[in-house]
Specification:
One of its GO terms (cellular component) is ATP-binding cassette (ABC) transporter complex. The radius of gyration is 23 Å and the shape is globular. The chain has 2 domains: 3-256 and 531-554, D-Maltodextrin-Binding Protein, domain 2 (3-Layer(aba) Sandwich); 283-522, Dipeptide-binding Protein, Domain 3 (Dipeptide-binding Protein, domain 3, Roll), CATH 3.10.105. With 556 residues, it is an alpha+beta fold. Helix content is 33%, strand content 20%. Strands 11, 12, 13, 14, 15, 16, 17 and 18 form an 8-stranded mixed beta sheet that branches. A 4-stranded mixed beta sheet has the order 1-10-9-8, with no helix packed on it. A 4-stranded antiparallel beta sheet has the order 4-5-7-6. α10 (299-308) packs antiparallel against α14 (355-364), α17 packs across α19 (474-491) and α18 (460-471) packs antiparallel against α19.
Length: 556
């Protein structure tokens, strides 16, 4: 299996264009900044704003998007994604995978890597880490991302053989994520999962030294890191829920990096102390409709919502100019890279706003306009914004809609138990259709281990399946079973043309069921203080401040 087969084929020009606009230079010419063999340190502490508390430091159990990036500083993976997303490079793996056959691969492991406690990283740690996530008894939320692995076997002190359940188009890309983070076997077993979640030990370029809940997470440079000690002395994530507060602290140099909302972009761009970087984030942002129970069981009621909304107003209400319309629940960049029939899909599945048609469909579904809609949202401008715009559209046709803002934990619980009519939703899917169609829309009951008995949905397709099963809707079940076959088959072949045909058919099944209001794909603006040197954020950045390509430091 070649690298071209196992990685996405997104156009490099997107990355070049986005970085050229902000004066990037030298990113691909080796490490930027100090020599990684120079362990003198003294580069300051890079302080980063984040809006959410960390729930667990164990990457095997993490569900928080921001920590999926931060965890790369604490833990390593077999591969690392290149800054432009075009492929992977070996990281803990000592060279490319050796293909024995299409479902068997051998990885040599570097023999110069140590964990933060000084223990050497070996093949046993790699095999243990992958198998632990793969074991349904451990209830890892990352299980579905590595279920292509049947078993990871330590076949030598520094050799791991990967036995796959099936050929997987995105194997190396997945092995570059924190879904496949490597942890120390002996320590993880001795501590147990709960203790390890609060006192993690990895092999990354930084190690955890302090965690003040709701305030900060502090990391310190690991001087025995196998790529050399980072120039930075440390990293500090500061919990700052309000974007305006984060920007004030960014502008005065209290922190060095923060996201910039649409309302603050102009101010950030005019501030001499701040460099702004606008990047595609390759995600899906929208609202899930409860298809299991409530007013939207009937597909005609869900279709009515599509006529109720103006997609451009939803986008503007959420993020202003910091996003683009999604197409068939994928970012425009993915649709373009795959040359999907975007114009046809827009015309067929995204009707113009028509409140009269919405009323007709509500009536056809057995509803009039005196029912109530419970809209659940996470905190944050983008989430509240889309929920508020939707609330207004319901009220325009005489339907009472209540927006209920909840905590992260309550939001996850609501997804699991279906206690909502419509819920805000975001998904980081990457630059391949698999990240949206398999990871968001598959039938979870067909995964190894199925779903926990207490979980009724957790993804839009989950509510569709459970609703069809509970109502005995055989025709819908037949369509959904075919859909599930397609999204699973698409990830089990490396032939791009076959994958293309699978996804086109899957779109034609999913879209007329209207399980989701696909609002937009975000474009994030991050602000970096000018005190930071040798640092270039990217759409695909992982372990950005110190990796194979660049190294950051603070110039006070």
């Amino acid at each position: 299996m070649s690298k071209e087969d196992t990685t996405s084929n997104i156009d490099r020009r997107r990355f070049i264009k986005s970085t050229a606009a902000i004066g990037a230079a030298g990113l691909f010419a080796g490490c930027v900044g100090t020599d990684p063999d120079d362990t003198s340190g003294g580069g300051g502490t890079f302080r980063i704003a984040t809006s959410d508390e960390v729930e667990t430091f164990d990457p095997r159990m993490n569900q928080m998007v921001w920590y999926s990036t931060a965890a790369h500083y604490l833990f390593d993976s077999l591969f690392m994604l290149e800054p432009d997303g075009s492929g992977t490079v070996p990281h803990l793996a000592d060279g490319e995978l050796e293909e024995v056959d299409e479902t068997t691969f051998v990885a040599d492991i570097r023999d110069d890597v140590s964990f933060h406690n000084g223990d050497q990283l070996t093949a046993e740690d790699v095999a243990y880490s992958l198998n632990w996530v793969r074991n349904p008894d451990n209830d890892s939320p990352n299980l579905s991302n590595v279920e292509f692995i049947d078993e990871a076997e330590a076949t030598g002190e520094f050799e791991v053989t990967l036995h796959l359940d099936y050929q997987f188009a995105l194997m190396e890309q997945e092995l570059a994520t924190m879904n496949a983070a490597i942890v120390p076997m002996d320590v993880a077993e001795e501590m147990g999962q709960e203790e390890f979640a609060q006192n993690p030990i990895g092999s990354g370029p930084f190690e955890l030294v302090n965690h003040d809940p709701s305030a900060s997470v502090e990391l310190e440079a690991y001087d025995d890191y196998f790529l050399g000690e980072p120039a930075l002395d440390g990293l500090e994530y500061r919990i700052i829920p309000e974007a305006e507060v984060g920007f004030v602290e960014l502008a005065d140099g209290t922190i060095h990096q923060s996201s910039v909302t649409d309302a603050l972009v102009d101010e950030a761009e005019s501030n001499d102390a701040v460099e702004t970087h606008q990047l595609d984030t390759f995600n899906f942002q929208g609202l899930i409709i409860n298809c299991l129970e409530g007013p939207f069981e009937d597909v005609r009621a869900r279709e009515a919502v599509q006529y109720l909304v103006d997609y451009d107003e939803l986008l503007t209400g959420a993020v202003g100019d910091l996003g683009g319309r999604s197409v068939a629940h994928m970012p425009q960049g993915v649709v373009d890279a795959w040359d999907f029939p975007a114009d046809e899909w827009r015309e067929q599945y995204y009707p113009e706003q028509d409140h009269d048609r919405a009323r007709e469909l509500f009536e056809a579904a057995g509803l009039d306009t005196d029912f109530e809609v419970d809209i659940v949202t996470l905190s944050g401008e983008a989430m509240r914004g889309r929920a508020t715009v939707l609330q207004h559209e319901f009220e325009e046709v005489g339907i009472d809609a209540n927006v209920r803002e909840v905590s992260d934990g309550e939001w996850l619980d609501s997804l699991d138990n279906g206690t909502f009519d419509i819920n805000t939703y975001g998904w980081g899917g990457g630059d391949d259709p698999d990240g949206y169609y398999y990871r968001m829309f598959r039938d979870l009951t067909n995964d190894d281990g199925g779903m926990n008995d207490d979980v009724v949905g957790h993804s839009s397709i989950g509510y569709l399946y459970e609703g069809a099963r509970s109502r005995g809707d055989d025709d819908l079940l037949e369509d959904l079973e075919r859909f599930d076959e397609l999204v699973r088959a698409a990830r089990e072949t490396t032939d791009r043309e076959e994958r293309y045909e699978y996804y086109v058919e899957a779109v034609e099944i999913l879209m007329p069921l209207y399980p989701v209001i696909g609002v937009y794909s975000a474009e994030g603006v991050t602000g970096v203080h000018t005190d930071v040197q040798g640092y270039q954020p990217t759409e695909f950045g992982e372990q950005e401040v110190f990796n194979h390509w660049q190294e950051a430091r603070i110039d006070d």
